[in-house]
From TrEMBL, chain A:
One of its GO terms (molecular function) is GPI-anchor transamidase activity. It comes from Miscanthus lutarioriparius. One of its GO terms (cellular component) is GPI-anchor transamidase complex. One of its GO terms (biological process) is GPI anchor biosynthetic process. Pathway: Glycolipid biosynthesis; glycosylphosphatidylinositol-anchor biosynthesis. This is GPI-anchor transamidase. The keyword Transmembrane applies. Residues 1-34 form the signal peptide. InterPro entries: GPI_transamidase, Peptidase_C13. Belongs to the peptidase C13 family. Keywords: GPI-anchor biosynthesis, Membrane, Signal, Transmembrane, Transmembrane helix. The active site is at 165, 207 (nucleophile). The chain crosses the membrane at residues 381-399.
UniProtKB/TrEMBL annotation, chain B:
Pathway: Glycolipid biosynthesis; glycosylphosphatidylinositol-anchor biosynthesis. The chain crosses the membrane at residues 572-592. This is GPI transamidase component PIG-S. It is found in: Endoplasmic reticulum membrane. One of its GO terms (biological process) is GPI anchor biosynthetic process. It is a multi-pass membrane protein.
Length: 401, 616
């Protein structure tokens, strides 16, 4: 669906007023920006948003791409609670899958991507453009659980990986809708305004991938696409056993780069980006770094693909807290504690006994009845009851005749 | 053509014979055969004209109703109020005025006069000018009281009133012990009042038989200095205590601590969930349980109450099993156990196996802080943390800002033969649990930007800090309230500004009433917070600022603001054109044609009348 060009707001107001408000706003926003940019947060955590936008059996390779990257990112340390995985998830149990519950990304079938511990956050028909934009901007309904939200803060680095079928300035979502490049740019702009990330790395593996991030303007964003405008991205090889292509070239070479790494290594992003060979990819992997301040050879890949945790040693406990607590409530510490609670426990049944007696004395006959019913089986009681009802019924009928 | 013919005199029946060459409808006008317009004898009727005109009119009358009912509902956002707030906050950043009251308790029966107090006041103010200013504290007003056996005089140049009553406290009271003296001073100072700016008191107690000076910082809003000193030294100590501790919380310039964004672990809706977990790395060795419900919650209740103005805290606890760590420790016989270095610590938390984030009470925008007790398995027990300088850590604990803290607890029967304790279920003793909670309180202080305790401070004179049962002393709480109030106010403002610019940039976006209401409530709370800040009331200012920020975030993150569902102008036309365009076209055409026909008929009639007039 075509999204109309947004008309600038100024066309609806008289020009003079527009200029004044624009100036005032520019002044205020620059002041605000100056204030906010001076507090530069430390890199605290890493998040990954992995999106596979295709469904149906012949798009097997897209799901294999996403699952391979999921596995890599988990292996390098990002936990499930900081990964948002959006998949159509219709490959593993597809009737056409001759290896049920298994998804491979190589024809040697050495690695089952769908093994154990795969947590898909948005599956099937939940992978829509609206949900994707809601994840990015954080505008969910209040009932959406925490595991489906991107809970990043101003110290987070986010990896956003998208794969599927794309074209010039758009990405197709599940054969029914499209994500346009200006929607993505708009969402990233709103994320930046709300400080939802410190740095963002966008990796796109589709045809004409570089056009998808052509409209980005927000600082701190790094983007790489598998092909440029007018080029297609190709799959790597066909698995004759499964019958479809199992991985795309760009992702294949990305995985080959990461298989050599572990979570302690510090290979730079520059080495990753320059490892792509256009003749092997059959397309040009294009990246834009004009919005990114740091030079790429100083940024380790684990800044985005691995986990990081800034730690500070706790020099001492807040000694004296126990003593201060004792000072305030002298009776409730140590052995006195158990005594205290035992006293309370003994007090409560006695109190409840008193209450129970108070309740039951006007109804002493119910106690008698309860005692009678104590030992008997419920079935027999029911039988007795039904029998009594039947007798009463017969009696009343006979009396009325 | 049928309509034109129908109004005239009834046409003669068409010829029955096969004379179809002449069209019966055109035969009538053709019969006249002249160049004059055909005449009619009767006045043309207006029924058809009125009918078509009324249909057209009803369409025209209904058009404004259509436009009104399909217009985008945009609740008006008070953008000038937002810009006004922005202007106020940027020109005068929120700062809390406070007061410093210095009391000198002299033993010598010296006659204290007004000039002495004034001199002391001026030197203290001069001292404060020299020290670096804090961002959140505003004007500091100073007042001095000198009390000796001869009498008591205070400087009355400023309005600082800490409620000090002369004669209630003497230097002889020092023997009762620091904590009790603290409470005595607290009661002597009128137990503080909640309204008005905060006043911090430093009492200088002169004793002759002491060498050097000793500083004790209490847990309310006062400190005292004991010793024999001249005026200059006393004034410098007072200034340093005030600036370093009461204003800055012991954090030096450039140190990581309060005031930086990563030390404010409060969710954007003002909620924090403290999640305490006991991790058994290998249950086949031993399984530990704890009594956190009874002991822990009771001990943490005062802390939760103390932090209530800045965060709504919920406490949860759980016990987990099969949770190995993911970094490697090596065995060091010299130190007697397994050792983890600080470089391994960032990889300690094994997020794949430690399913910590299982909170059910944490909503989408609240912050969860994890406090983890890790019990190592028999293989790696006892496990120590080695600091970079080679010493072993006393606490075996570390924090990660905005995430939480981890403590490694070695079970007491670690050094024994592990085979004896195979798979037994044990409980952490109350004493151990309480000591663990002490470390957690230290970590909580660290997460909020303060030092876990002041034991390792190096001051040029011995300093003691009285420990509070609330986990934070009142002056530390004032510090937290001030910082959180300032930062929440600024963040609320930037959120409202982005929301306003977003709404303005998309003229056809629906803005629901709820958003408008939340913005108004947020502005109201922000104004209250700013007003309280100028008065110096830090706790109510913090409450209002937290509320303002929560409301602003609710408005900004309202799920109805989704860019994909805006009704653009083309969309609007695409919906309504198929309904109205064909129908309105037909109606318009019909009305025009009717009008033309009516005019033609009238012309004919008037021609007939004219011919009648000429012939008669």
């Amino acid at each position: 669906m075509a999204f109309g060009r947004r008309s600038p707001g100024s066309s609806r107001h008289p020009p003079a007023l527009t200029i004044v408000t624009a100036l005032l706003f520019a002044f205020l926003s620059s002041a605000a920006a100056a204030a906010s940019s001076s507090t530069d947060a430390m890199h605290n955590n890493n998040w990954a948003v992995l999106v596979c936008t295709s469904r149906f059996w012949f798009n097997y390779r897209h799901m294999a791409n996403t699952l391979s990257l999921y596995r890599t990112v988990k292996r390098l340390g990002i936990p499930d609670e900081r990964i948002i995985l959006m998949l159509a998830d219709d490959m593993a149990c597809n009737p056409r899958n001759s290896y049920p519950a298994q998804v491979f990304n190589n024809e040697n079938h050495q690695l089952n991507l769908y093994g154990d511990n795969v947590e898909v956050d948005y599956r099937g028909y939940e992978v829509t453009v609206e949900n994707f934009l809601r994840v990015l901007t954080g505008r969910h309904e209040s009932a959406v659980p925490r595991s489906k939200r991107l809970l990043s803060d101003e110290g987070s680095h986010i990896l956003l990986y998208m794969t599927g079928h794309g074209g010039d300035e758009f990405l197709k979502f599940q054969d029914s809708e499209e994500l346009q490049s200006h929607d993505l740019a708009d969402a990233v702009k709103q994320m930046k305004e709300k400080h939802r990330f410190k740095e963002l790395l966008i990796m796109v593996d589709t045809c004409q991938a570089a056009t998808l991030f052509s409209q980005l303007q927000s600082p701190g964003v790094l983007a790489i696409g598998s092909s440029m405008k007018g080029e297609n991205s190709y799959s790597h090889h066909l698995d004759s056993d499964i019958g479809v292509s199992v991985v795309d070239r760009f992702t294949y070479y990305t995985l080959a780069f990461f298989e050599k790494l572990n979570m302690y290594s510090n290979a730079s992003l520059n080495s990753l980006f320059t490892s792509y060979n256009p003749s092997m990819l059959m397309s040009t992997a294009y990246y834009r770094m004009d919005l990114y301040e740091r030079p790429l050879n100083e940024v380790p890949v684990t800044n985005f693909f691995g986990s990081v945790m800034k730690t500070l040693h706790t020099d001492s406990a807040y000694t004296g807290f126990l003593a201060a607590h004792d000072y305030e409530t002298p009776l409730s510490v140590g052995d006195n504690l158990d005594d205290h609670f035992m006293l309370k426990d003994r007090a409560t049944p006695r109190r409840s006994n008193i209450e129970k007696e108070a309740q039951l004395t006007p109804h002493g006959w119910t106690e008698v009845l309860l005692e009678q019913l104590e030992g008997k089986n419920t079935d027999t009681v029911v039988m007795y009851g039904l029998g009594a009802m039947g007798i009463l019924l017969a009696l009343s009928t006979w009396l009325s005749m | 053509m049928a309509e034109i013919a129908g109004d005239e005199a009834p046409t003669p029946p068409p010829p029955i014979s096969g004379e179809v060459s002449t069209d019966p409808y055109t035969s009538i006008p053709a019969s006249t055969g002249s160049n004059n317009p055909p005449l009619r004898t009767t006045k043309p009727g207006v029924k058809r004209l009125i009918l078509t005109a009324s249909v057209l009119l009803s369409f025209l009358v209904g058009l404004p109703f259509l436009l009104k009912s399909t217009e985008i509902h945009r609740s008006p956002l008070p953008s000038d109020a937002i810009t006004g707030l922005a202007h106020r906050l940027h020109s005068a950043p929120p700062s809390f005025p406070c007061g410093l009251h210095a009391v000198f308790l002299r033993s010598v029966p010296d006659r204290s006069d007004a000039s002495l107090t004034r001199r002391l006041e001026q030197s203290i103010s001069a001292q404060l000018q020299l020290l670096p200013a804090t961002s959140t504290a505003g004007n500091v007003s100073v007042s001095v009281t000198v009390e000796s056996a001869g009498g008591c005089s205070s400087s009355s140049s400023s309005n600082v009133d800490s409620g000090w009553q002369c004669g209630t406290v003497t230097s002889a009271d020092l023997v009762i012990g620091d904590e009790v003296f603290d409470e005595l001073l607290h009661s002597a100072l009128g137990s503080g009042r909640g309204d008005g700016s905060r006043v911090y008191t430093v009492v200088v107690v002169e004793v002759d038989d002491a060498e050097g000076m000793r500083v004790v910082v209490g847990k309310h809003r006062h400190a005292w200095v004991v010793g024999k000193a001249d005026e200059v030294k006393a004034v410098s100590v007072i200034g340093k205590v005030f600036a370093k501790y009461f204003m800055n919380g012991g954090i030096e310039e450039g140190e990581a601590g309060i005031g930086k964004g990563e030390f404010m672990p409060v969710g954007s809706d003002g909620n924090v969930v403290l999640s305490f977990s006991l991790l058994n790395a290998d249950p086949s060795d031993w399984v530990y349980d704890w009594d956190f419900e009874k002991i822990g919650e009771r001990m943490l209740n005062p802390v939760v109450e103390a932090l209530r103005p800045i965060a709504e805290i919920n406490i949860e606890s759980q016990v987990l099993y099969h949770t190995p760590k993911s970094s490697y420790s090596y065995s060091d016989d010299k130190l007697g156990g397994n050792v983890l270095s600080m470089g391994d610590i960032p990889f300690f938390v094994n997020s794949n196996e430690w399913h910590l984030d299982t909170s059910t009470s944490a909503t989408g925008r609240s912050k969860v802080l994890q406090f983890v007790v890790y019990i190592p398995s028999a293989r790696e027990c006892p496990l120590y943390l080695q600091l970079p300088d080679g010493r072993l850590s006393k606490t075996n604990a570390f924090i990660s800002p905005m995430w939480g803290g981890v403590l490694i607890w070695n079970p007491p029967d670690c050094s024994l033969d592990s085979k004896k304790t195979h798979g037994t279920r044990k409980k952490m003793s109350s004493q151990e649990l309480m000591e663990t909670i002490e470390i957690f309180i230290g970590q909580l202080r660290q997460l909020f930007g303060l030092k876990p305790s002041y034991l390792s401070q190096d001051m040029d004179m011995p300093t003691k800090f009285v420990v509070s049962e609330k986990g934070f002393t009142e002056w530390e709480l004032d510090l937290l309230y001030r910082h959180h109030a300032c930062s929440n106010l600024l963040s609320c403002l930037t959120t409202l500004e982005s929301l306003s610019s977003l709404v303005r940039s998309l003229p056809r976006m629906i803005v629901m009433d709820e958003i408008g209401r939340q913005v108004e409530l947020s502005l109201e709370a922000a104004n209250l917070a700013q007003g309280n800040a100028t008065l110096g009331i830090s706790d109510s200012s913090a409450v209002h600022a937290t509320r303002a920020r929560a409301l602003a975030e609710d408005a900004f993150f309202h799920p109805s603001i989704m860019s994909i569902s805006y009704a653009s102008i083309e969309h609007y036309f695409a919906i309504y054109m198929p309904f109205f365009a064909p129908v309105s076209l037909h109606v318009l055409l019909a009305a025009i044609k009717e009008l033309k026909r009516y005019k033609a008929e009238r012309a004919k009639y008037s021609a007939f009348l004219a011919s009648q007039a000429t012939s008669s």
